[in-house]
Specification:
28% of the residues lie in helices and 20% in strands. The protein folds into 3 domains: 6-31, no CATH class; 56-144, 2-Layer Sandwich (Alpha-Beta Plaits), CATH 3.30.70.330; 154-241, 2-Layer Sandwich (Alpha-Beta Plaits), CATH 3.30.70. It is built from 7 helices and 14 strands.
């Protein structure tokens, strides 16, 4: 939501944070500096039914082939968008080397693509300028393909070094109405999940935490960095490295 005046935004934030909407608490966060806002809700999200997903090996291969410090991971593509269309869109930016939309075995694309630049500076500039811009009536959701932040601190680097071989994450504070499929959908946006386990109580309900094992330590590190402030059903998911076996 964008307001015309900062005072109006602050008032709305104060009055609506954690208030309930249809019995679910609203969790509000301030938008990034200089965000790009999108047109009406009718074009806000990619609601077209998805093709059959890539299997685990295919998806891992796709992401590993395109991960680099000069590439952008483009999500929420219209399934009608072609590689040529994606290339034309990013052709307005400087130093674009290639644009690719991977496809599955049925020759259908999966709603995401990759754009590679000749240098990291050009990639970062395009990432900021194209975030939320419309392509074939869908707002683009962009991430650095490498999953690494150029402003990462020495402490985060130390943490990555310490856990460079760890692929398992313990997720705490999981809302009780959430299920395993929802967690898989959430975490598969940033990495290939090999296993997701939600310990159960005697009555069959889960205990409010889960263990998620990723295909690689690099993907697990990306998840730790990108999803540290994620909320699900109004609850803040707490992510920790899992040292032992679940």
């Amino acid at each position: 939501m964008e307001f015309t005046q900062p005072t109006e935004a602050r008032k709305a934030f104060k009055n609506l944070a954690y208030s309930k909407f249809q019995h679910v608490p609203l969790y509000l966060e301030w938008a990034p500096i200089s965000p790009t806002f999108v047109p009406p809700p009718s074009t806000a999200l990619n609601t077209t039914p998805k093709p059959s997903p890539l299997d685990e090996e295919e998806e891992r291969a796709v992401h590993s082939n395109f991960q680099s410090k000069t590439s952008i991971f483009v999500k929420n593509l219209n399934f009608k968008t072609t590689t040529e269309g994606l290339s034309r869109f990013f052709g307005t930016f400087s130093n674009v080397r290639s644009a690719t939309i991977p496809k599955n075995k049925e020759n259908q694309h999966m709603g995401f693509g990759f754009v590679e630049f000749s240098d990291e500076k050009s990639m970062i500039a395009a990432l900021k300028q194209a975030q939320g811009k419309m392509l074939d009536n869908f707002p683009l959701l962009l991430e650095a393909s490498s999953g690494e932040s150029s402003t990462s601190t020495s402490s985060s680097k130390s943490s990555k070094s310490k856990n460079k071989k760890n692929t398992k994450i313990m997720v705490k504070n999981v809302p009780f109405q959430a299920n395993r499929d929802e967690l898989l959908e959430l975490f598969n946006q940033f990495g290939t999940v090999k296993k997701c386990k939600m310990p159960k109580k005697f009555d069959g309900s889960h205990r409010g935490f889960a263990f998620v094992d990723f295909a690689s330590a690099k993907e697990a590190e990306v998840v730790m960095a990108k999803m540290s402030k994620t909320h699900l059903y109004g609850r803040h998911l707490v992510l920790n490295w899992e040292a032992g076996e679940e």
